[in-house]
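Mods, move this if it's the wrong board.
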Amino acid sequence: MKYNIIIALLCISTSCREMKTSRTSDREIKTSNTTFKNEGNPFIKDKFTADPAPLIYNNKLYLYVGHDEYYEGQDMASGGKEFNITEWLCYSTDNMQNWTDHGSIMKPTDFDWGIGEAWASQVIEKNGIFYFYTTVQAGEPYNSKVVGVAVSDNPLGPFVDPIGKPLITDDMTSNGERGWWNDIDPTVIVDENGDGWLCWGNGTCFLAKLKPNMVELEGDIQVIDLPKFMEGPWLHYYNGYYYLTYASMGDKSEAIDYAMATSMNGQWDHKGQLTGMAENSFTIHPGIIEFNDKWYLFYHNATLSIDGINGAIGRRSVCVEEFKYNKDGTMQFVEQTKSGISNLK
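Not the wrong board. Structure tokens:
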């Protein structure tokens, strides 16, 4: 395994496309590149999409989402089977109004050890390499939700597995009440010191420092105590503060809360709710980013209907709102709207 890691990291420093450690290395980029206009929330209207994760690169915003797909009997399913997230899609925009649909950029089975379930992910860029951190259902010997990482030299892929195994497995964390699927929903940040940090969890919020290669942990896994923490953490930085935004338990379904800290290994102070519960959806998932001098909150609800199929817990739809900060660094409460930012220029 050490040999595989050395070879993979050598490939990262040269060209990801030359890597042969995964069957994804032979996969070509096949994207649809259709375009559409933002006409209000949910702004992606031809597919059910969830778990939005924005990235800025070369003055363009890339948005990575999971593809919720309907299957017969889905509305009677439970225990996680109500979700049928088959692949990760990517969209891009120069101005938040006109969008390009790049189609599918990766599937769980692109990992040799993955067997399905394209749950929440995030892509970040460091030194010209794009790191795709994601949730996957892993087969033998793991048989649980895990966090994987794939790399590319292009934000649209193809992404390949640099380590040949999951980055986070169930045996690395305490299970708590959420059991074998508490290792989900990764978010990553490179802090002001140039250090990478990985945060994830369902029921328990975990945090770990990454080695400079971004594909191995450095040090112990920490547990962050956050009020009403459910899942879906998101890390970002603004004006001297780090923000940890997450899906929290609302009155009947998830809302979004956040905490602030002055360093990634410092004290996280809970600041309250950022937005309320999503319409018609038990889950909600934040993705926060600055683009063209404005700050945006991406999230999902379940209000979209496609060809007579209504939105539901496993058929969600991505939305976006602009938001602002207060003078003390706290974020102003975000109202979820139907117009979204479609009327902004």
